[in-house]
Write a structure and sequence with these properties.
- With 406 residues, the chain is an alpha/beta fold.
- The chain has two domains: 136 residues, Rossmann fold, CATH 3.40.50; 209 residues, Dihydrodipicolinate Reductase, domain 2 (2-Layer Sandwich).
- 36% of the residues lie in helices and 27% in strands.
- It has 14 helices and 18 strands.
- The strands form three sheets. Strands 7, 8, 9, 10, 11, 12, 15, 16 and 18 form a nine-stranded mixed sheet that branches. Strands 3-2-1-4-5-6-17 form a seven-stranded parallel sheet, with helices on both faces. It has a two-stranded antiparallel sheet with strand order 13-14.
- Helix 7 packs across helix 14.
- The longest helix has 18 residues.
- It binds NADPH dihydro-nicotinamide-adenine-dinucleotide phosphate (NDP).
- The site of NADPH dihydro-nicotinamide-adenine-dinucleotide phosphate has 34 residues, from helix 1 and helix 13.
Length: 406
C-alpha cells in the first residue's frame, strides 16, 4: 500500500506512469504532476486505456519549492519519483526534505547556466537526509542506474577484483528523421558537446568532444562507432568499486547524427547562453529544442534495438577475466507495451524498479545513495521480471581489453 508522486510528464514520465500502474500491489495510488497538465492528462488517458488504471494528474512548477512542499504535505506520498529535468533535482530534494518524503531521480543535478554534471551538489544532502530519516536514491535510470547495478553485481558475484570498466551504450534504432534526439534534446546536446572525460588510476583525464572513437562489436546490434564521453555514473563508481583502475563511458553515434551536430555547433545553435533576438532573450539551444521533434513523439516511428552494457575486466580465482553484462531492448516492443521508444523505456523501467524496492523495504535506507551502494540482487531479479532482461557473456581477455594492466 503506497502512494507515489511522479514529477515530469515527458518521455520518461510516461513510461514510469505505465510501469507503476502495472504493479498495482506496490503502487496503490499514483499522481502524475508536471508543468504542463495537458501532457499529464494525455499520459493518464493512455495508462487508463493500456493498463486499465486511473491515475490522478496535477499541474506543478517544481522550481517553486514552497508550492511543491505544500503540495507534498497535502498529498502525503511515500515517495517522489523525479523525472523532470536535472535542473529540478535540488529543488525537489529540498521540497521532499521539508515535507518528509523519500526521493528518487534518474539524472544528477546540473546548474542551468553551466553544463556540468557532478554529484557534489546532491551528495551535500547526505547528512540532512540521514538526520531527517529520509532516503534519496540517485540515478535510477539505465545509465546511470542499471549500469551501476551491473557493476555492483559483477563485484559481488563475478570477480574478486575489478580493474577496468567500459560502459557502452548503443542505440541502433532508426526514427526516420534526418536529426532528432532520443531524449530531451537540450540535455542530450549539452552532454555530448562537452569535453570527454574518463578516470584512470585516481585521476580524471580530459579529451576533446568526440575525439576518441572505437568500433565495438556489440551483441545483438553488431559493430558500432562508439565515442568516449563523460557520464555521471563514473563519478560514483570510481569511489565504490574496489580496486578499480580505469573507467570509461562510450556512446554510439552515426556519421549522419554527428554531421548534423557539427553544423548546429558551428552555427551557434547549441549555445545555452541567451542572446537578444528582436528584443527577446532566447537561448539558441532552447530554441533548437522547440524546433526538433519531441522525443516523446518518436515512439511509433522508431525501429531497431538498443544494447547497453558494461565490459568489465578483472581477476577471479587468480585468473584474468572479462565479461560483458548487457540488456538489449526493441523499440517497437516498448511502443506496444507503453507507447514509448526504448530510450525512455530503458530509463523509466529502472526508475519504477528502484521505487518498488524502496517501497517494498528491500532498498529503504536513510541517507543519499547511489545505485551501486545497495544490494544488486533484487534489482537484477526485477529487471528480468519487468521488461529489461540481461545477459552475461564471457569475453576473451585480449590485448586491447587488458592493455593497461596485463
Ligand atoms: P522531457 O523533456 O521529455 O520531459 C521532462 C518533463 O519535465 C516535461 O514534462 C517538463 O514539463 C517537466 N518539467 C520541466 N521543468 C519542470 C518544472 N519546473 N516543474 C515541473 N515539471 C517540469 O525529458 P525526458 O522524459 O526525456 O527525461 C526526463 C529525465 O530523465 C531527465 O532528467 C533526463 O536527464 C533523465 N534521463 C535519464 C536517463 C538515464 O538512463 N539515467 C536517460 C534519459 C533521460 P513541460 O512538458 O512543461 O516541458
Amino acid at each position: 500500500m503506497s502512494k507515489v508522486i511522479i514529477v515530469g510528464a515527458g518521455g520518461v514520465g510516461g513510461v514510469v506512469a505505465h510501469k507503476c500502474a502495472q504493479l498495482s500491489e506496490t503502487f496503490t495510488e499514483i499522481v502524475l504532476a508536471s508543468r504542463t497538465i495537458a501532457k499529464c492528462n494525455k499520459i493518464a488517458a493512455d495508462v487508463k486505456e493500456l493498463q486499465g488504471r486511473e491515475i490522478r494528474t496535477e499541474a506543478i512548477d517544481a522550481d517553486d519549492v514552497a508550492a511543491t512542499t505544500a503540495f507534498l504535505e497535502k498529498e502525503k506520498p511515500d515517495l517522489l519519483i523525479n523525472v523532470a529535468l536535472p535542473y529540478q533535482d535540488l529543488v525537489l530534494m529540498d521540497a521532499c526534505l521539508a515535507a518528509g518524503v523519500d526521493y528518487l531521480d534518474t539524472a544528477n543535478y546540473e546548474p542551468p547556466e553551466t553544463p556540468k554534471f557532478e554529484y557534489k551538489w546532491q551528495w551535500a544532502y547526505r547528512e540532512r537526509y540521514e538526520q531527517a530519516k529520509r532516503m534519496a536514491l540517485l540515478g535510477s535510470g539505465f545509465d546511470p542506474g542499471v549500469t551501476n547495478v551491473f557493476c555492483a553485481y559483477a563485484q559481488k558475484h563475478l570477480f574478486d577484483e575489478i580493474h577496468t570498466i567500459d560502459i557502452l551504450d548503443a542505440n541502433a534504432g532508426d526514427h526516420g528523421y534526418p536529426f532528432a534526439t532520443n531524449f530531451n534534446p537540450e540535455i542530450n546536446i549539452r552532454e555530448i558537446t562537452q569535453n570527454g572525460r574518463y578516470w584512470e588510476k585516481g585521476e580524471w583525464k580530459e579529451v576533446e568532444p568526440m575525439s576518441v572513437k572505437q568500433v565495438y562489436d556489440f551483441p545483438v546490434v553488431g559493430p558500432q562507432d562508439a565515442y568516449l564521453l563523460y557520464h555521471e555514473e563514473m563519478e560514483s563508481l570510481c569511489e565504490n568499486i574496489k580496486g578499480l583502475q580505469r573507467i570509461r563511458f562510450w556512446m554510439t553515434f552515426s556519421e549522419k547524427y554527428l554531421t548534423h551536430l557539427r553544423v548546429l555547433e558551428n552555427v551557434g545553435m547549441t549555445n545555452h547562453e541567451t542572446i537578444d533576438f528582436q528584443g527577446q532573450q532566447i537561448a539558441p539551444l532552447e530554441f533548437l529544442r522547440a524546433v526538433l521533434p519531441d522525443p516523446a513523439s518518436l515512439g511509433p516511428r522508431t525501429k531497431g534495438k538498443t544494447c547497453i552494457g558494461c565490459d568489465i575486466v578483472g581477476v577471479k580465482d587468480g585468473e584474468p577475466k572479462r565479461v560483458f553484462i548487457y540488456n538489449s531492448c526493441d523499440h517497437q516492443e516498448c511502443y506496444k507495451e507503453v507507447r514509448s521508444q526504448a530510450i525512455s523505456y530503458t530509463t523509466g523501467v529502472p526508475a519504477m524498479i528502484g521505487a518498488s524496492l524502496i517501497l517494498d523495504g528491500l532498498w529503504r535506507k536513510d541517507g543519499v545513495w547511489n545505485m551501486e551502494q545497495l544490494d544488486p540482487d533484487p534489482f537484477m531479479e526485477r529487471l528480468n521480471q519487468y521488461g529489461l532482461p540481461w545477459e552475461v557473456i564471457e569475453m576473451p581477455v585480449d590485448a586491447e581489453a587488458s592493455d593497461v594492466f596485463y
